[in-house]
Design goal:
Elements: H1 7-24, E1 27-28, H2 37-60, H3 73-85, E2 90-94, E3 99-100, H4 104-107, E4 108-109, H5 124-134, H6 145-163, E5 185-190
Parallel strand pairs: 1-3
Antiparallel strand pairs: 2-4, 2-5
Amino acid sequence: MSTTNLFWPVFKNIEKEITSLSNDIHFDDKQLSIYSVKIAELLLRCVVEIEAISKDLYFKNGGTKTDGKDLFFDTDCIDLLETRWMLSKKQIIVSSTNFHFQNDENKMLYPLKKANKRGSSGADWAKAYQAVKHNRVGNLKDANIKHLIRAAAALFMLNLYYRDDVFELGKESQNNFTHSLSDVFVEWRWT
C-alpha cells in the first residue's frame, strides 16, 4: 500500500522561501556568512525535515532499531543510508539563477558528507542546527546562508531517495527531469 509523501511539499515550500529570501539578499560567495532570525527559522525547519525523512527512510530500507533506545537521525538513520547508498559521495549542483556563486565549493555540494557523524565530526549544517537549536541567541551567526543552502541540498537529496522515481533518460520528454523537481538544485552527480 502506497503512503502519501508528506516530505516533498514541505521541501518545496522551504525551497520557495529560500528563493524568496534570495530576492532580498544577494546570494553570492561573499554573502554566505549573512545570518538572520529568518534564516535560523528556515534552517531549523529544514533539519527537522531531514530528521523525519531520514527516520522514515531508515525503516523503509531495513532499519530495525526498536529496542526502546533513542533512534538518532545522524548516527543511526543516515549511517544506515550511507552504507546502502554512499550518500557522502553524492553531489548536488546549485543552479538557481537567483544564486550567484562563483566558487565550485559553493556550487557543487556534498551535503550528506559527514552527516552520519555527530559533534565536531559532523556536517557543517548539522553542527549549525544543533548550535542554533540549543542556544539561538548565542549562536545566531551559525544560522547563515551557507548552512541553510547545504541543509536544503541534503533535504533535497533525501527527498529524491524517498520519492524513488524512475526516469528513462533516453526519452526526449524526460531529458530535463531535474528541472521540474527543484528551482534551486537542478542536477546531482555521483563521484
